[in-house]
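Quick review question:
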């Protein structure tokens, strides 16, 4: 099959979060299975160029219509970890992708509308006919709309679209002008069953457009698929998702088993695996030395997270303070975009600065994250909502017991140690339901109690987590099944 992946991110060249890991992991797995895969990204000025092999300008001066006129684009080609990638570089006066960031600009809808249009022009003008374009999140929601409204009539009529929702919290809301920008008929498209936002009659909702026009829609866990159709997690799109429920499903993400492997991880002072679990203790020692924590017979609670309201910040704070009270150590590695949340954790950092059992590191640090996973005993993940979540899967692969709220992908991957309805081998952590300090404590106290009083049982729980298969192999097969179902079959 010939698959084009459209996304704002692809790790490690352009990663802001889990979306980048997703595109990288899935593209690699599909290519490994023998399919022709091309990832097409904007050519941001902040691309990590050292991660691209053989970058060259391969398609200069592609003319892209925009409003009544247009702009020229250069396309660059290169390989990222063996994946064929294209990078779109519009020569527009707005300088769309020379902002030093991937997304988060006030004109993001215009930036990604230009990208969507340029991507389709590229396919059209170079005679490419992918079986499937795999679009991701709101940034690419207008691609299936443009494909069916404009490009099908120009000959792109054998290409189908699978659209994956990674986070309903961002839908790309924008004014009607965006449709004029793209040469689309606003009168026809601004209807309740097409692109009109359910909450605001004058707002275009690109994510809704993607859902309506795509041939298949997926999200990143079965539980989140149910939540976005049935609860407020749908953020206004519940009705649209229910109406298109026949083509909608949840597929749990994988994690990159090469990058996240405690037996080969270059960031660790001591390699270890299920057969050599006691060696994990050397990493705990190393982390304690690095962060100035006391050497003591105490469990280590860890948090590695973006510090965003979605992640349950009050409960993160509560878990740290409560864990310390119960005789544990606590480490947090967290990155905040919101200055108020940054300040919130700076206060906690000051309050705990003199405590030899606690360390808060504010910022993004890939190497430190690896060491924390290797050192920790318990990982706390109290998310308000969590489409899939990678942290709990990485934690389990490193023999860390997750304490997680039972939402979204967390509910699909973390199974309570005390759940008598499950075989013991499937239990791997502790879960709680309510978004309250009491509910969190009930799960965290059980985990700490097990560590202190039943170490052999705790060890078994670690091993259960390490034995889970959260690689990309199964999800890649599930995506391929969907692609095979929607593609145009050869008549021969
Ligand atoms: P999201 O995509 O919502 O941020 P996920 O759990 O899907 O959450 O993915 C988070 C990924 O980012 C994990 O690989 C985690 O280790 C990493 N991560 C999160 N915060 C940090 C940080 N401050 N420093 C280093 N890595 C981080």
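Suggested answer, residue by residue:
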């Amino acid at each position: 099959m010939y698959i084009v992946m459209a996304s704002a991110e692809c790790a490690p060249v352009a990663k802001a979060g889990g979306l980048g890991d997703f595109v990288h992991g899935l593209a690699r797995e599909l290519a490994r299975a023998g399919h022709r895969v091309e990832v097409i990204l904007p050519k941001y000025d902040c691309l990590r160029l050292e991660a691209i092999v053989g970058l060259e300008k391969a398609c200069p001066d592609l003319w892209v219509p925009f409003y009544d006129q247009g702009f020229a684009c250069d396309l660059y080609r290169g390989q990222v970890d063996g994946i064929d990638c294209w990078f779109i570089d519009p020569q527009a006066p707005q300088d769309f992708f020379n902002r030093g960031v991937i997304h988060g600009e006030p004109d993001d809808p215009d930036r990604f509308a230009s990208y969507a249009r340029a991507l389709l022009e590229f396919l059209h003008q170079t005679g490419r006919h992918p079986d499937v374009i795999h679009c991701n999140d709101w940034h690419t929601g207008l691609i299936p709309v443009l494909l069916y409204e404009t490009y099908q009539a120009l000959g792109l009529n054998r290409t189908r679209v699978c659209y994956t929702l990674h986070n309903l919290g961002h839908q790309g809301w924008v004014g009607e002008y965006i449709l004029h920008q793209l040469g689309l008929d606003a009168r026809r498209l601004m209807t309740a069953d097409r692109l009109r936002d359910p909450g605001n009659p004058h707002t275009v909702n690109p994510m809704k457009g993607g859902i309506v026009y795509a041939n298949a829609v997926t999200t990143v866990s079965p539980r989140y698929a149910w939540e976005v159709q049935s609860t407020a997690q749908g953020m206004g799109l519940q009705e649209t998702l229910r109406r298109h429920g026949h083509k909608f499903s949840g597929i749990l993400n994988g994690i990159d088993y090469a990058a996240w492997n405690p037996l080969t991880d270059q960031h660790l002072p001591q390699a270890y695996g299920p057969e050599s679990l006691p060696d994990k203790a050397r990493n705990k020692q190393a982390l304690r030395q690095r962060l100035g924590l006391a050497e003591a017979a105490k469990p280590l609670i860890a948090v590695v997270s973006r510090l965003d309201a979605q992640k349950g910040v009050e409960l993160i704070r509560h878990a740290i303070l409560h864990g310390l009270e119960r005789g544990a150590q606590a480490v947090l590695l967290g990155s905040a975009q919101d200055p108020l949340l940054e300040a919130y954790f700076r206060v906690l950092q000051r309050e705990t600065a003199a405590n030899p059992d606690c360390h808060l590191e504010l910022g993004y640090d890939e190497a430190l994250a690896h060491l924390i996973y290797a050192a920790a005993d318990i990982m706390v993940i109290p998310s308000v909502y969590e489409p899939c979540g990678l942290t709990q899967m990485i934690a389990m692969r490193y023999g860390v017991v997750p304490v997680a709220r039972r939402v979204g992908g967390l509910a699909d991957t973390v199974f309570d140690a005390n759940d008598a309805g499950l075989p013991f081998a499937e239990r791997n952590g502790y879960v709680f339901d309510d978004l309250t300090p009491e509910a969190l404590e009930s799960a965290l106290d059980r985990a700490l109690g097990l560590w202190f009083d039943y170490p052999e049982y705790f060890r078994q729980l670690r091993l259960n987590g390490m034995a889970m298969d959260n690689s990309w192999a199964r999800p890649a097969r599930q995506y391929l099944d969907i692609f095979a179902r929607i593609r145009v079959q050869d008549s021969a």
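Why it works: Residues 2-254+473-487 form a domain with the Rossmann fold fold (CATH 3.40.50.2000). The pocket of adenosine-5'-diphosphate is lined by residues 17-18, 304-306, 333-335, 364-366, 369, 388-391, 394 (CB under 6 Å).
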